[in-house]
Amino acid sequence: MRVRFEPFGVITQVEAGKTLLAAAIAAGVEIEAVCGGRGTCAKCKVIASGELKPLTEEEQKKLTADELQNGYRLACQAVVAGDVEVVVPEESRVSRVSILSEGTVRPFVLHPWVKRHPLQVPEATLEDQTPDLTNVRRAWEAAHHKLTPTLRALRQLPFALRDQQGNLTLIAADDQVIDVHAGDAPPRVLGVAVDIGSTTVVGYLMDLETGQQLAVSSLLNPQTRYGDDVVSRIDFATNDPTGLETLQSELIKALNTIIAETTRMAGVSAQNIYGMCLVGNTTMYHLFLGISPSALARAPYVPAVVDAMRVAAHELGLAIHPDAHVWVLPNIAGWVGADTVGVILSTGMYLQDDVALAIDIGTNGEMALGSRQRLITCSTAAGPAFEGAQLSCGMRAAGGAIDTVKIDGDVHWHAIGDSAPRGICGSGLVDLIAEMLRAGVIDSTGMMQDSETLNQNGQHKLAERIVQEGRQRVFELVRPSEGAAGRTVRVTQRDVRELQLAKGAIRAGIEILMKKLGIGPSDVKYVYLAGAFGNYIKPESALAIGLIPDFPQAQIVPVGNAAGSGAKMALLSVGARNEATEILRNVEYLELSGRPDFQEQFAEAMLF
Amino acid sequence: MRVRFEPFGVITQVEAGKTLLAAAIAAGVEIEAVCGGRGTCAKCKVIASGELKPLTEEEQKKLTADELQNGYRLACQAVVAGDVEVVVPEESRVSRVSILSEGTVRPFVLHPWVKRHPLQVPEATLEDQTPDLTNVRRAWEAAHHKLTPTLRALRQLPFALRDQQGNLTLIAADDQVIDVHAGDAPPRVLGVAVDIGSTTVVGYLMDLETGQQLAVSSLLNPQTRYGDDVVSRIDFATNDPTGLETLQSELIKALNTIIAETTRMAGVSAQNIYGMCLVGNTTMYHLFLGISPSALARAPYVPAVVDAMRVAAHELGLAIHPDAHVWVLPNIAGWVGADTVGVILSTGMYLQDDVALAIDIGTNGEMALGSRQRLITCSTAAGPAFEGAQLSCGMRAAGGAIDTVKIDGDVHWHAIGDSAPRGICGSGLVDLIAEMLRAGVIDSTGMMQDSETLNQNGQHKLAERIVQEGRQRVFELVRPSEGAAGRTVRVTQRDVRELQLAKGAIRAGIEILMKKLGIGPSDVKYVYLAGAFGNYIKPESALAIGLIPDFPQAQIVPVGNAAGSGAKMALLSVGARNEATEILRNVEYLELSGRPDFQEQFAEAMLF
């Protein structure tokens, strides 16, 4: 059957019985599908005409009468029965997310584990028939230690050795020789550091000899097509016969795109990339290596492997030198991954005497509290509210997302890219709720006031924005006259409750960590806010809604993509790479699920 | 262009400009090509009709007027210009060589480096969320040492661990886990030992848990198509742009055929072959690994690598478990290879107090002399005479080859397979020359007597067999009335000279080794004759022609395929595998080329 996607003018052929979402994936048309195609997020609305199977129950629930009348369907539910024409409205398209690529890195010594070694090897004679490898090994071991060449490098050796009278250059990763060049004019020695986020993948192309960053590139993690959150991807990997393979190969493809892009920008060859260092959460680690993450999603939440692993690039199909060493940093536990190790590494909090708290907030809030004496980590299921999902008008931090709100008699907002607002992202929501609290639009239990009460308080402009819809109150942040294409951006009472759940989980985690470490808020000297959310959130708003406690002695430091910075450090410094494993040996992990004190703290922390 | 090969009825399409030999190789038709297609051996005679380029100079030199009249061409010289019909006469077909597969092995303890390890791993709980790998590692390290799984094994782990409540079986090669199975009903643990000869490849399928040999299979080394001897293959690998790749892939294909054949015979799966151990000469070692052997063929005769090497099966395309460990035993020098290490290993001569001499004769004569105190090896270029090549009626030890000769008034002979004689093989030639010497048909300088002299001595029947051809005498061993299809098998004065060169080289090598070691013939207690030639040769004939000195105290022991036995030992015993490297460290190598005393000895040793 033919399916045409407008306004892209893309036509694809699919078998009858496939959903429009499947057709879109096949055609390379990117449609939002936050819930992984289960019909629950209603982000994949499209206007479809032609032969389709009848509306499903989910569609009847999620689509309004207006939408039904205008031919709206959910792409993940609508099944193709013949030729179909589909219009993908703007709000359902995946928009390029603005990605936070840079992070703070503490000073460290450049000492990469991939190195160039120029050698001058004496020529063999009839009196000294020393074999090539033995000959090279002698010249090498005068200066270094053991030498083990890969088979590929060994195959290059006889040629390189004779090309320029024994003058040659070895490229070694740790003690393995992975490339051999004749002469002393060898190529650059490059590496790539990668942060595999659930949502975005960022790659940094580094010159390993100067430590210089040559280029950076990022992509939406293509796995989002198969589920926006980690759990729905584990489901897909577990239940679809080729799920694991698909998720891995999509990720490798994205990395190869980033590699092609960064090497193009820097004007270098990907064949000269000899080292790679990656961080990501534990699920991304498993999916990157093609190891089943199934056991992570059900109690007792056990990962297959947490250790730092080294594999060769060719084992994974990475388009760099085939024998390049690819390191994934170690994970701490099933829900505290190598990205947290990267944060601990780049902030250096495991080396400081002062107590620090690091928080990286996404669907899960991963946090670490402590100092060189003792460091404890935990993870809380914050839910997708901070990433803008599962909210009526939530969206990722992309163009058109409201990211700043000020209430001052009436509402003022700012949208990313200074464009017309399409929805609200995590940091905007925290701002909004903080302001609504301050203005008394919601009370400390999270309940939204009615217009009458607000009018009584003289807040007439705000009162106008309160709408009663059935049994629920709604706050209209952007009304049709103010919005993009006449759209409304609104926050419902339910949205407020979602945020309360999310912030309650994070806050409860922080409280339990402090309790476990036997300290109070005034003992904390640094609060590192990592990741995009942490970077863009206003600290005062985070305090206002009680996402973090008031730390009277603490300096609040947004550290940007600290996980990615950790990957760069481990790429550029053998010491830092080894420290990552050292961190794993010393850090404690606290499992919060099933702890009665967590439940108590959580209930309390949900209040404002 | 269409080329049809009869009597096989094989038709192939080739481009104009290709030789008939190239067409035959493409079509899988095996034609003798001892010189590697250089037009010098004239073994590839075929009768061709159709459109061919004119006769080359080489053809005009090598083909008789009779042959030219009958449409004979040299397949390596005749170039296709249109459709051609080719008849391959029997003498130009590659015949199956009778391969010596078994050898003597000294007793050793079964202690393979590939092993099965059953484990019972405790289940994870919320209180103990130990990652799978850590969990398995703990159970393992209670009994063994370090554990490093391959990526493939790691991918199997989460499934195997949960399939039968933590009851699983690991297959480890040394300290690397290469396979993981659920439960305690795992497959067999198998290995393959291989002797890669220049002429034949033999593979032994072994059960690593019982030490039992399950099957053996052998093939003509398919590289012989590109040159019968090692030097012509090095030439091909050096000068043809895809030569090295072709020689390697042909060898791998042959090994995969042997693997398929032996596993079929034994009714087992090749996926359960987890270890492989190979011996061969230094050139075969290089070609097997795809490492250029070019420097071996020109002074100072330097190999790229001599060390024992371990590679994974998938790196070479071997059709066994992809992560199986494939070991090639070490070489001693460019012209004394891992096959000699195998001989030293399986005879145990490096452990004995008594002095022993081991000789493995092929195109090169590799020999080792000594005891546990000191062991010296060398290699002499014997030339192809002992392998039946470069002689007017020489052939390999295949069906129809005369292998035993007795002179008793007249000549009596035996041909392999009790078939009609087609030529004479190495051991037959040694027999013949010994008998001719005894009967006075040739004198101690190697000169063949004329009929007159023989008649004067009353040896009339022998005198009848002497024919004068131009300036050369010829001895007719088989006359048309006695031979196959009326064929003559004859030995020319030049053939005798070839044999003198060959035996002189071997003998001179032995003499120099004794001199270097400071011993005389009576100090030698064992003479190990290895390989097919050594196994079939009559020791008294070898003594009669002076191939080996008279060792008054020595026991002469044919040890069969001792190189292959060494490969089996190294497969079945980690101790033996390590000893191979130990041998390399202790053995001395003597380069004979360029030694003035070798030239002297050689001149003297050529006499009978």
Written overview of the protein:
The structure is a homodimer of 608-residue chains. Chain A is built from 19 helices and 27 strands. By secondary structure, chain A is α/β, with parallel strands linked by helices. Among the domains of chain A are: 2-92, Ubiquitin-like (UB roll) (Roll); 114-182, Ubiquitin-like (UB roll) (Roll), CATH 3.10.20.880; 191-328, Domain of unknown function (DUF4445) (Nucleotidyltransferase, domain 5). In chain A, the strands form 6 sheets. Chain A has a 6-stranded mixed beta sheet, sandwiched between helices. In chain A, strands 26-25-16-17-18-27 form a 6-stranded mixed beta sheet, sandwiched between helices. A 5-stranded mixed beta sheet of chain A has the order 2-1-5-3-4. Chain A is globular and about 105 Å long. Chain A starts with a strand and ends with a helix. Chains A and B meet through helix 4 and helix 5 of A and helix 4 and helix 5 of B.
Which helices and strands appear, and what pairs or packs with what?
Two copies of one chain form a homodimer.
Chain A: E1 2-6, E2 10-13, H1 20-27, E3 45-52, H2 57-62, H3 65-69, E4 72-74, E5 80-87, E6 114-120, H4 132-141, E7 148-149, H5 151-163, E8 167-173, E9 176-182, E10 190-196, E11 200-207, E12 213-220, H6 230-239, H7 243-266, E13 273-280, H8 282-289, E14 309-312, H9 313-316, E15 325-328, H10 338-347, E16 355-361, E17 364-370, E18 375-381, E19 401-408, E20 410-415, E21 423-424, H11 426-438, H12 451-456, H13 460-465, E22 466-469, E23 472-478, E24 489-492, H14 493-517, E25 524-530, H15 531-536, H16 539-544, E26 555-560, H17 562-572, H18 574-586, E27 588-590, H19 596-605
Helix pairs in contact in A: 6-7, 10-17, 10-18, 14-19, 17-18
